[in-house]
Amino acid sequence: MFKTLIISTIALAMIVGTSALSFADDADKARIAELERKVEELTDLVHQFMDDRPLTNTTAAMKAPEGIEDRVAVLEDKVKKGSKWLEKLKLKGDFRFRHEQKFKPQGEDINRQRIRLRYGLTAEVNDKTEVGFGLATGSSDAPVSTFQTLEKEFQSKAIWLDYAYGKYKHNKNLTFLVGKFKSPFLHTDMLWDADIRFDGVALQGNIDVPENILANTNLYATIGYFPIDDSAAGESDFFMIGNAVGLKSKITDRVSLNTAVNFWDFRNLEGRLTSTFAESKSTNSSSGGVVSSGFRIVNPIVKLTFKELLGNDVIPPLTVFYEYAKNVDDAAMSDDSAWRTGIDLKKGKRKKGDWRLIGQYSRIETDAFPDAFPDAAFNSGGTNAKGWEGIIEYYMMNNMSIDLDYYNTKAVTGSELNEEVVQVNLTYYF
Predict the structure, then answer these.
(1) When comparing pLDDT for 291 and 73, which is higher?
(2) Which domains, from first to last, does the chain contain?
(3) Strand 110-124 to strand 238-250: parallel, antiparallel, or no bridges (unpaired)?
(4) pLDDT tens digits, one per residue of 56-79
(5) Cβ distance 202 to 222 under 8 Å?
(6) How far is residue 203 from each of residues 209, 241, 257, measured CA to CA in Å?
(7) Which phi and psi (to 5°) does residue 16 adopt?
């Protein structure tokens, strides 16, 4: 109907124009001729609209404003630049819901539900530099836990800065870290809880061993300075120097080795008042409220991973590990060592049907390590503890798992009563 109306209008205009031509003078005839030309162009455009024919040069010029191609090109360039910028950003996180029961000596049982949310972003500043930060929940600013107990009449939960760092990768062999970041050292959570983030600076280096000396082997080293407590005026600051040398080697197609020796040198800790430490668990030796021991710890660790134990993938990769720690400070007390051994059987990477099984035994003596940093759930944290831990994890669907974590521990010296902890976790990764 619309197309018919247009054609009828054009036809009427042509009839009127032709009729008027016989009564017009020469000037009028020229104007009428120009009008007829424009009508013919409009008629041609209508036919193209009806027949879907390609536009002529004239009609194309009528439809496309001048400079539109340049404006479209500029817009496309901005979209491409925006896409490249977004490609340099990486987001990741997880949410965990936990039901926890603690069966403690003398009937001090605990039954509670907890949540943990972690969210992080990394940005590629240039081809050598990266910046990252992460936020996490937590009942306090304690370094050994990002869990928040569900309590206190539905109060809102706090969010803390979990990490914030800058990384400069000079080349594949040399990396420099500053800020607050995940541990750059090889260890389990026997001495350092998995939630701890190191504050300070660290330098990491590695080099491949020549094939004719030791095939498929890489040597690595890490050194770092980590401030722990900013003391009052007139007192020396409490800090740690961390050093490590290690080796990764593919022994065979089915066997690989990762081993390192860490050295933790805590400075200006001995002789300080225990009350000055916000995170102390009061399990290190002290006399009159003063820390008795110094802490300089040698900490070797060995991990052996076996693939295709039966010649196929029926049994997933199995890692056997052993970690030892010895406080070699001159002022160390007699209870100055720690060790852990265990196995880690892991199938897949967060896909539906994947699973993991961990079993380990640990023993941490009183002055083996500063008591603020070991696994917070192992005998309620601190040192002077020994016992078992077992973990079973299963992925019900992609990036969603349920796991059971069981602890059975007691003190190395003192009370012989066991502490049992059962944790059931539902975790979503994104």
Answers:
(1) 291
(2) 2-64 (no CATH), 97-429 (2.40.160.10)
(3) unpaired
(4) 555 445 555 667 777 777 777 777
(5) yes
(6) 20, 12, 23
(7) -60, -45
